[in-house]
C-alpha cells in the first residue's frame, strides 16, 4: 500500500513495511521525522524517539496535531499515508531542481485529449490534502468509507447532484397537494360492522399504499446511485487498459 512512497523516500524496507507492528511503526515514525519531515528541532524529538515509553502514544498524538494531520491516532493506515505524502512533498521541495524535469515512464505516451475529457484523471489521488478533503466531505454527508478515494468522490458527486442542488432542494421543499379521493371506490375487503371504522380502515390502507410507493422510489434511487458507482470500470490510462 505504501511501497511507492517508501521507495521514493529511500526507506530501507519499502516492500516489507508493516504499520500494524507496533515497534516497527514507532521506529518508522522516528525515522520519518528525523530524516524527512523534520518538523521538530533535534532537541525537541526526545519524547518521540523514546519508543519504549508508555507515554509514546500521547507524544505521537501531539506530533500529529503539530503537523496538522487530519486523522485520528486510531486511523493508522490513513495517518501513515498522510505523513508519507507530507514527507514526499517536503522531499520534492528540498530537491526541486533535481525532479522538475523528470517524467514518469508511462506519462510520455499519454493522450492529452483523453486527459482533458475526464477531469478526475488529472487529480492526484495520492495527495494527502485531496484524501483529507474527500474524507471530510464523506463524514459530513455521512457517506460510507471506501478504500478508493475516487469512488467516495463519485458517491459525493451523485449525492450532491441528486439531493443538494438548488432544484433538488426546491423540489423537496414544495408542499404536496393531495387529490380528493372517493373512498367508496376503494374496496376494503372486509366489514367491521361499523361504517365509521370501515372508513378509517380505508384511509389507513390508502396511506399505507402511499408509504410503500415512497419506499419503492427511494429503493430505486439507491439502486441507480450504486450502479453508477460500481458499473464504472477502473481504467489504467498509462497502460491503455480497462479493468482491474
TrEMBL record:
It holds the Pfam family RLL. It comes from the Eukaryota. Belongs to the RTRAF family. This is RNA transcription, translation and transport factor protein. The lineage of its organism: Eukaryota, Metazoa, Chordata, Craniata, Vertebrata.
Amino acid at each position: 500500500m505504501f511501497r511507492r512512497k517508501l521507495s521514493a523516500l529511500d526507506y530501507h524496507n519499502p516492500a516489507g513495511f508493516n504499520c500494524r507492528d507496533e515497534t516497527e511503526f514507532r521506529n518508522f515514525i522516528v525515522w520519518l521525522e528525523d530524516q524527512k519531515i523534520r518538523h521538530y528541532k533535534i532537541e525537541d524529538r526526545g519524547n518521540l524517539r523514546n519508543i519504549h515509553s508508555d507515554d509514546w502514544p500521547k507524544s505521537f498524538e501531539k506530533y500529529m496535531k503539530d503537523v496538522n494531520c487530519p486523522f485520528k491516532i486510531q486511523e493508522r493506515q490513513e495517518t501513515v499515508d498522510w505523513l508519507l505524502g507530507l514527507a514526499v512533498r517536503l522531499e520534492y521541495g528540498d530537491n526541486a531542481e533535481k525532479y522538475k524535469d523528470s517524467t514518469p515512464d508511462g506519462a510520455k505516451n499519454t493522450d492529452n485529449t483523453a486527459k482533458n475529457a475526464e477531469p478526475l484523471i488529472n487529480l492526484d489521488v495520492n495527495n494527502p490534502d485531496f484524501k483529507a478533503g474527500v474524507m471530510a466531505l464523506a463524514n459530513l454527508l455521512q457517506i460510507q468509507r471506501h478504500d478508493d478515494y475516487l469512488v467516495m468522490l463519485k458517491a459525493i458527486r451523485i449525492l450532491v447532484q441528486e439531493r443538494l442542488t438548488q432544484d433538488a432542494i426546491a423540489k423537496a421543499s414544495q408542499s404536496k397537494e393531495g387529490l380528493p379521493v372517493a373512498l367508496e371506490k376503494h374496496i376494503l375487503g372486509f366489514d367491521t360492522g361499523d361504517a365509521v371504522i370501515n372508513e378509517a380502515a380505508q384511509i389507513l390502507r390508502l396511506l399505507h399504499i402511499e408509504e410503500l410507493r415512497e419506499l419503492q422510489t427511494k429503493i430505486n434511487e439507491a439502486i441507480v446511485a450504486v450502479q453508477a458507482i460500481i458499473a464504472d470500470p477502473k481504467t489504467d490510462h498509462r497502460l491503455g487498459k480497462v479493468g482491474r
